[in-house]
Design brief:
three-stranded antiparallel beta sheet; mainly alpha
C-alpha cells in the first residue's frame, strides 16, 4: 500500500487531500481483509472485494455507511491498489479487475445567478475602502474566484509572480500538477490591483515574505479554511443563507463561473480548458444546468408552452 501511495504521489501527482482519502479507504480495506484472515494481496478473491464494497454501503463494525460517491472513491482506491499490485509483481492476478462500482447519482452543480453573485461580491466591501482593510483583500479574493473559476486551493496557492495584471492573465496550478493560464476579468483585475498596492504590502511586512497573492493578518499565506470563512461571512451578509443554495462554498463560485460562461454562449471545450478539467465529460455536467435554464425561458416565453 505504501508503494502504491508513493506511486500516486510521485508519478500521478494526486493532491494531498485525495491521497489522505485513499489512505483512509485502503486502511479500512486492509483491516477488512485481516479480519477475514487474508494476509496477502495474492490471496484476495473478487468475492472479498465485492463483499468489502457492499459492507461500506451497509455500514459495519461500528463504521458508518458510506454514500454512493464515497463508496465509488473507495472502490477506485481498491481497484487501483490491485492493478498496481499485479503490475509490480505483488500479486499474480488483479482480483478487482472486473469490479465496477455503482455510479453516483448525477446531480446538477449548485450555482448562483448573476444577481446573487453581485450581492455576494458587494457584501465583501468596496475596493476603494481607505486604510489597510481586510475587506479589500476579501473582495479581491471573491472577485478572483468568480473571475477565474479557480479552485480554492489554486487561489490560495497562487503567487504574485503568477499574476500578470497588465496582460490580464494568471497561471493556475491544478490537480495532478497540471498548469493552465486563464484570463482575469476587468472587475477582478481592479480589485486585485487595489489589494496588491494598498493592502498586501502592509500584510507582507508582518510576515516572512510569503510569495502568495492572498495573505492573512500575520503575513502568511491565507489558508483554505480562512478563505471558506471569508466566503461564508460574505454570504451571510448578502442574505444567501436561505436562498435554497445550500451552503455557499468556493466551489459554488466555480460552478457559477462555468454556468454563466455557457449561458453566455461559450463552447464547452473552452470552458473545459478554463476549468482545468482533464476530460470534457466532467465539464458537460454544466450543460445540464444551461438546458434547465433554456427550458425555463421556453416555458415562460413561448405561447404554446404557457399554461
Amino acid at each position: 500500500m505504501r508503494s502504491y501511495l508513493d506511486h500516486l504521489t510521485v508519478e500521478r501527482g494526486l493532491s494531498t487531500h485525495t491521497l489522505r482519502s485513499y489512505r483512509r479507504d485502503l486502511n479500512r480495506y486492509l483491516d477488512t481483509l485481516a479480519q477475514a484472515g487474508v494476509r496477502d494481496l495474492a490471496d484476495v478473491t473478487p468475492a472479498d472485494v465485492t463483499g468489502h464494497l457492499a459492507a461500506l454501503r451497509a455500514g459495519d463494525g461500528g463504521q458508518p455507511r458510506l454514500s454512493v460517491a464515497s463508496t465509488a472513491r473507495a472502490a477506485s482506491a481498491v481497484r487501483g491498489l490491485h492493478r498496481f499490485a499485479a503490475r509490480e509483481g505483488y500479486a499474480g492476478v488483479d482480483a478487482a479487475r472486473d469490479i465496477r462500482p455503482a455510479a453516483p447519482p448525477r446531480r446538477l452543480p449548485r450555482a448562483l445567478d448573476v444577481d446573487q453573485v453581485e450581492r455576494l461580491l458587494a457584501a465583501a466591501g468596496e475596493v476603494d475602502r481607505p486604510g489597510v482593510s481586510l475587506e479589500v483583500r476579501d473582495r479581491a479574493l471573491l472577485e478572483f474566484l468568480y473571475g477565474t473559476g479557480a479552485r480554492i486551493s489554486e487561489a490560495v496557492g497562487a503567487a504574485v509572480d503568477d499574476l500578470d495584471l497588465d496582460a490580464g492573465v494568471v497561471l493556475l496550478r491544478g490537480k495532478g500538477g497540471r498548469q493552465r493560464i486563464v484570463p482575469v476579468g476587468r472587475y477582478a483585475a481592479e480589485a486585485l490591483r487595489a489589494y496588491l498596492t494598498r493592502v498586501r504590502p502592509a500584510l507582507a511586512a508582518a510576515g516572512r515574505g510569503s510569495p502568495a497573492i492572498f495573505l492573512n493578518a500575520r503575513g502568511g499565506q491565507l489558508s483554505r479554511q480562512s478563505a471558506w470563512t471569508v466566503l461564508r461571512r460574505c454570504a451571510g451578509r448578502a442574505g444567501l443563507a436561505d436562498t435554497g443554495v445550500h451552503a455557499v462554498s468556493p466551489h459554488t463560485l466555480r460552478h457559477s463561473y462555468a454556468t454563466h460562461l455557457l449561458d453566455g454562449g461559450a463552447d464547452v471545450r473552452v470552458v473545459q480548458e478554463l476549468l482545468g478539467h482533464a476530460s470534457v465529460t466532467t465539464t458537460q455536467v454544466y450543460t445540464l444546468v444551461t438546458v434547465d435554464r433554456l427550458r425555463e425561458v421556453y416555458a415562460l416565453a413561448h405561447p404554446r408552452a404557457r399554461r
